[in-house]
Amino acid sequence: MSARYTGGCACGAIRYEIAAEPMKAGHCQCRDCQRATGAGHGSFMAFPDATLKLTGTPKYHEVKADSGNTVRRGFCPNCGSFLLGRNSGMTGMVAICAASLDDPTVFKPQMLLYASSGQAWDHVDPALPRFPKMPPMAR
Question: Tens digits of per-residue pLDDT, 30-51?
Fold first, then answer.
């Protein structure tokens, strides 16, 4: 199967290819995503982890989510680009930062997570389903 989605970091040290369609896509307004992105929210697409082909080695930063799960965010150790994330409560899935895609126009958000932490200045599509925290995620 050929890659459907490709992307990488700003300096090119890390590249990825994904040969699958996203399982989920959305924005997250939790404070951790705000800090990691330097913006009002992070925008992500979740894929089966087994479909990710990664070239280069990200550096990971771990945080404890309010659910008690461990969230690992992968950054390029050279340029600092935030590329991907994994959640211990969602094994078998990897989240790719939509802005790291070679063609970010393919990102189609389906939901807004952690809307309760949203900043008044961070305007997202009001038609998206909103969840105050992390909803139960069916796989």
Answer: 998 999 999 999 999 999 999 9
The CA distance from 66 to 76, in Å, is 25
Placement of tokens 């790719």 in the chain: 96
**Mean of the pLDDT values across residues 81-92?**
93
Domains and CATH numbers, the chain: 5-117 (2.170.150.70)
DSSP type of residue 5? E
Q: What is the pTM of this model?
A: 0.90
Backbone angles phi, psi at 65, to 5 degrees: -75, 160
Q: How far is residue 75 from each of residues 48, 116, 137, measured CA to CA in Å?
A: 19, 26, 24
The whole-number pLDDT of residue 2 equals 61
- Count Cβ atoms within 10 A of the Cβ of residue 123 and give its class: 0-12 exposed, 13-18 middle, 19 or more buried: exposed
